[in-house]
Amino acid sequence: MVYLTRKAEFSASHYYHNPEFSPEENRRIFGKCNNPHGHGHNYTLEVTVKGEVDQRSGFVVDLKDLKEIMSREVIDAVDHRFLNKEVREFRDLIPTTENLAIAIWNWLQPKLNVAQLHRIRLYETPDLFVDFYGEA
User: Is 124 a catalytic residue?
Assistant: First the structure.
């Protein structure tokens, strides 16, 4: 089994807010991330796939295909977007890095037919990232 990782970057803004919380509770739990005008991040996405090496091509997956799928399914959907307002999944779901990693998994997993999706690693900042392996 070979594991292959491809990186991509995107910028997006968001804010954290739970409508079930009082305004005070939202401010206490989410702090400055509760600003309704949002704040932005330059995210780094790592998509790791796994599979057997194709003996004819020497690849686990065609890198051009993987890049195209990542661009179409993820980058085009979130780059320079206000996640809470412009991405359907986050109209009713807090766009934390954790929830964003799960959404990315759900967008990519059905589109990969040669290699198997193994891990989504999403950096919100250089020293904060989430790993998601598809477990519910």
Answer: yes
